[in-house]
Amino acid sequence: MRKPQRDKYLPIGNNKTTITSYIKDMLVVNLMKNALSFSILSMLLLNGCNGDRDLSEIEDLGVEPQKVISLPNSDKNEMQVLQEPHSSFMIQESTPTNDQELREYLYNKYQVPKEWGEFIPGVKTQVSTDEKVIALTLDACGGTTGSGYDAELIYFLRQENVPATLFVNSRWIDANYWTFWALNRIPLFEIANHGTEHRPLSINGRSAWGIKGTENVAQMTDEVLLNHRKIEQITGKAPKYFRSGTAFYDDVGVKVVYEIGETPVNYNVLGDAGATFSKEQVRDALLNAKPGSIVLLHMNKPNSETAEGIKLAVPELKNRGYRFVKLSDYPLK
């Protein structure tokens, strides 16, 4: 008859030292199990218990953008976002003493964003170079009033051999499918992602410029990913860059963009203010660009003066020694 196997967790021998060591080992195991249970409980509460807080009590995290832009001086916060993706799961300094405190702690930690705006850590706003180069970015926002096509503008850029990055929304693609298909085949241009429904990336439904933002991570993901897949399917190439509707994000939205494999890009020169500038204002904005500037313009408003303003500025910028580049031509910062 085969001898029964000994339970591998039982101590060998019966002396006091061996048994004491065994008890200590088992206490460590139990402590580890309890820690794991607390982590699981925290995640469950995160997903199911954040509806008890009145959103009206949350402090305002920002203001609508101004035409005078103040950019951050350092990218150290951005590097922390990218290099320490799990830092938000560190154990808190003081443990909640009851369920309500735990709910509030988890809500404040995960549901309330720490940043909101156009120029927050992780969002690229400049080409990383001291060379005299400028990156023109053209938004095509889509929707009932935003699905036009400024053929005059595109024709001028081609005639002048001026490259640009085109941020295209899913609705604009639907309304201009063959135009989009043709633009993708022009080497002078590269296609980027301007979202599915042109919404700000918010974890709690915050609005910008009257447009309601996404309300949770699932909606954030769809806003980025659905148009990402559409562009990839039509062009055969996945877009590298993303700009949200209104160019507003919170810090959670920025992380979601990176997780999907794109880089959030805004600007440091407001070129046409949603295609509302006069041609003189567009010209002056472009002539104030510096080496490495990213300019925000629009290609979906053919009745605007954006094209005329660009026509006035491009020859002068070339005379000053500037070149025009796509975003992918240089690193961004």
In short:
By secondary structure, the protein is α/β, with parallel strands linked by helices. The chain has helices at 16-48, 76-83, 99-111, 151-159, 170-175, 177-184, 217-235, 251-260, 279-287, 306-319; strands spanning 116-117, 133-140, 164-168, 189-193, 207-208, 211-212, 241-242, 249-250, 263-264, 269-270, 293-298, 323-325.
Explained architecture:
It is globular and about 70 Å long. The protein has two domains: 11-49 and 97-112; 133-329, TIM Barrel (Alpha-Beta Barrel), CATH 3.20.20.370. The protein starts with 15 loop residues before the first helix and ends in an 8-residue tail after the last strand. The protein has helices spanning 16-48, 76-83, 99-111, 151-159, 170-175, 177-184, 217-235, 251-260, 279-287, 306-319, and strands at residues 116-117, 133-140, 164-168, 189-193, 207-208, 211-212, 241-242, 249-250, 263-264, 269-270, 293-298, 323-325. It has 333 residues and is α/β, with parallel strands linked by helices.
Shape label: globular
| Helix-residue proportion | 25-40%
CATH topology of the largest domain, by name, is TIM Barrel
Protein structure class: alpha/beta
Element pattern in H and E: HHHEEHEHHEEEHEEHEEHEHE
Low-confidence residue ranges: 6-12, 44-92
Number of strands: 12
* Strand fraction: 5-15%
What's the oligomerization state? single chain
Mean pLDDT figure: 81
CATH architecture assignment of the largest domain: Alpha-Beta Barrel
Give the number of helices: 10
Domain module tally: 2
